[in-house]
Structure formats: C-alpha cells, structure tokens
Amino acid sequence: MTTRYSPLHQKHVDAGASFTDFAGWQMPVRYSSDLAEHHAVRTAAGLFDLSHMGEIVVLGSDAAAALDYALAGNISAVSIGQAKYSLLLNETGGIIDDLVVYRTGDDRFLIVANASNREVVAEALKLRSAAFDCEVYDESDDLALIAVQGPKAFEILGQVDGLDIPGLAELKYYRSVPGTFEPNPPAQHEVFVARTGYTGEDGFELYIAPDVAPALWDAILETGQGSGLVPAGLASRDTLRLEAGMPLYGHELNESIRPAQAGLGRVVSLAKEGDFVGRSGIEAGLPPGSSVLVGLVSDGKRAGRAEYEVFHADRNVGAITSGALSPTLGYPIAMAYVHPSVGAVGTELTIDVRGTQVPASVVALPFYKREITS
Amino acid sequence: MSEPTERKYTKDHEWVDVVGDIATVGITDYAAEKLGDVVFVDLPAVGSTVAEGRVVGEIESTKSVGELFAPVAGTVLEINDAVVAKPELVNSDPFGEGWLIKVTFTELPQLLSYDDYSKLTGE
Asked: Do B62 and A302 touch (CB under 8 A)?
C-alpha cells in the first residue's frame, strides 16, 4: 500500500510532530505531549487534522431514499443543514462502519466515513443505491478536514481573518452551514462548517479544498494561540473520545457487533418505511447472551487496554476494547464487551492487567460529560 | 552521572551508567519519545535479584506499555522514588532525573556504545 500524506503534512513536520500510520496515512500522533494536547482541548481548544477521513457525496433526486435503504437511520427525515450520526450495516445487522451524514441540499448528502473504511463505504453505497436515481462520488481526495475542538473553539473560529461563516453564533450542535475562506482576497474558497466532533467538547469541523487547507490551518492557529489553542494529534483524540464514551471502529465496532450491543440501538430506525440493509437481522433480535458494551473504572494508575480479559469471580466474561489512564479524571477507564449478566452498573469485575487482577466497576457511559453552558 | 555519549546502551532502548560495580539504568530519549507521555512507572523492589534481559518493571504511557528490562544481572540497590511519584520525569529528563533503577553487579555484559546505539535508532 502506498503511504498517503495529508495536505497539511508539511505543517506537521514543521511543528515537530511525531507520526503514526493510520489506515495507510502518515498522520500526526502528537506534536509535543499527548496529555498537554488532551488538556488543551478540555480547557481551551485543539486543532486536529482529520484529512484522512473519507468523504462521500450522494447526489440525485432519489438520494434520500437511497440512503434510507443503505443506512440504518431515517435519513430522509434529516433537514438541510442538519447532521446525523448513522451506521452502515451488513445483511445480518453487523456494523460495517459508523458515519456522520450531512444533508447539504434537497438532493445532496455528504457522508463522512472512517479512513480505514472509505473504499468499503463508497462501494457499499454505490451498490445499494444502484436502483435509485442518484450518483455516489468519493470526494475524499478533494477535501481536507480540520477540526477545532474545545470550549474556546467557537470564540476562536469567529475571529479568524478571512473566514466567513454566516450564522455561526446560531449554529447548533449537529448542524452545518456553508461558509467562505478568503486568505488572499479576492480568491474566495468554499468551506463547509459543521458543529460536530469526536472529543466530547463543543467544536467544529471544517471541510475545505486541499490546496487551501494549509492557509486555513495557519489562520486558525494564529488566531487561537492567545486563547490556548494548540495543534493536537491522534493520541489525544483517542483519549478524548474514550472519555466521552464514543465508540471507535475497529475497537468497539466491527461486523460481528450489532448496534444494540454497542448501545447504538437508537441509531437504527425500525419505524422508517421500507426495507433497509440489515433490517431483517436487527428485527430478529440479539441472540441470548450477546455481549454488551460497558464502561469500567478502576482505582490506581494501571489501565486495562484493548484485548485485556475481564473476569467476574474466576469466570472470563469479556474483554476490553479501549482503555487508558484518563487524563481528565486521573483514574483508569475502559470500554469492554461483557456478558449481559454482568453488564449492570455497579457490578464488580476484575481486569487481567498483564497477570495482575485489577478490580474494576461497571459504570454508565460516558465517563466524561462537558458542562453545557449555552 | 556521565554524559549520555559516555554511557552504555541496549537494543531495548535503555541506557546504563556504570560507576564501579553499580549500574544506573534508564530509558533513552528515543524510547521516551516513542512512548509518549509516561503516566505510570512500576519498578522492582529494592533488594530483589534481577536476571539480565528479564522484565523487571513497566513504563506506561497514555498510549502504550513499555517493559523495563534488566540490562545486567545483579541486585536492585535503589529505585527512583521521584519518578514513581512523577512519571513525567521520564519524558522531561530521561538521561537525568528520569533514571529508573540502580543495580549492583559482578559482571558487565556486552553493551552498545553511544555510537552503536545512535546507528540503531538512525539518529
């Protein structure tokens, strides 16, 4: 596989970032410190390059109907400017990927998929929409994605020179709006702005042409520096989303997991008219004993990590899918799939941390929830 | 302690500073950088016997877990309590305040020179 580079790669090199391979992309894992970047997002703001994500456009008079059939949610009920978290299911109701769907017009949707699933999602959408009057375009190479996340994200974004986002002040969570960026007037570039994110904080995601992305990156960095904004890498993104109880494809989600197991039953709309891929599998219900996703917390500093086994008394009841010492909370947190008999909040379990049984309690997700001030 | 250029190294990215029959052990800046922010350090008990090449402790970062190998066989003379209390010392000063253990030994195994180690990491 050829290595892919973000249009912002040189910015990260210049900033002294360490890189990691993510689905074939060289992406910044950290710039200086995972913890500092994590705390910056919780207390001020962080700037993320997410250009590796897949962006797929579905366009045509039947686009909404096609997505109602292709995805788990009721997509035709999504209004223009609204975003919806959804799932691409297989025939048996297993999760192929989780996605965010933005309705950008009557007959146009932008679908954002995980980097590792870009081709899979694009192919599935093409296949599933073949009988509908619409086209599927993989625009991933034509869009960079920059996220500004944190309590100061709104204040910073409103002050970036050349960035015009109509109605930014009124833009609600999971809503989007087209804007413009004009780094060198009169050259004006489109930027698609959504109030979405993957950190548990308020924040925005900005989609822009790759050649203009470096100028936007610099402009946001410069504007935000006085407010404590720092560039943040994928390491902090992972601990932030874990604290926020957000599932990650490949960890909490895969084709053998049904939405209800992952606590995502609400994402599936059985009420919508017509068939959709995965409907029969979902309607059949979960087999008895299907594992459920839970949150686990422990005392001390030793964190259970992905694939560590979980026990109830001497019985192996499941395994961790993601875990870390929570930077915000100061104690170890983990998400795990366990047998439903031990999934109730308050159940005492143990985690096998490299040979040591570490006590852990089942807690409700998320581990961290921001205070809503506005 | 001596300058990093004067110390011995292992392929497991540890440095060894030898004075008499005492070896002070830590991880290199390269290893610390690869680990990311260290949040937990587990060190062997003072007085315990360690065998060359065996795992004697753990260095955990937010992202991963690194193992501490004993670069020499011997007895643990001292551990760095400061680094247990403040694991971030491993990142901020890996060759100094971030040292991990001191081991008394009778025989020093073949270790890498600074130059050899630098070739290993390509730096």
From this structure: no
pTM, full prediction: 0.93
Contact list in A for residue B36 (CB cut-off 8 A) is 29-30, 33-34, 235
Q: List, as one string, the DSSP characters of B18-51.
A: EETTEEEEEE-HHHHHHH-SEEEEE-PPTT-EE-
Query: B63, B64, B67: best mutation site toward chain A, by most A Cβ within 10 Å?
Result: B63
By the 8 A CB rule, do B104 and B74 touch?
Answer: yes
What's the pLDDT score for residue A170?
A: 95
How far apart (Å, rounded) are the C-alpha atoms in residues A74 and A84? 9
Length of chain A: 374
DSSP A177-203: EEEEEEEETTEEEEEEEES--SSSS-E
* Residue type at A25 in one-letter notation: W
User: How many Cβ contacts (< 8 angstroms) between chains A and B?
Assistant: 42
Q: What is the mean pLDDT of residues A72-82?
A: 97
Tokens encoding A220: 């946001």
If you average pLDDT over residues A341-351, what whole number do you get?
Answer: 98
Percentage helix, strand, coil for chain A under 3-state DSSP, each rounded to 5: 25, 35, 40
Coil/strand/helix, residue B69: strand
In A, residues 341-360, which contact B (CB 8 Å cutoff)? 354
Instruction: Give which of B34, B35, B37, B92 to mutate to test A binding, by max A Cβ within 10 Å.
Output: B37
Is the CB of A34 less than 8 angstroms away from the CB of B62? yes
Cα separation of A265 and A252, whole Å? 14
CA B14 to chain centre: 4
The ipTM value here is 0.83
**Would you say residue A185 has pLDDT above 90?**
no
Which two tokens mark A88? 């691409």
Peptide bond into A186 cis (omega under 30): yes
Q: How far, in Å, CA of B11 to CA of A297, rounded?
A: 36
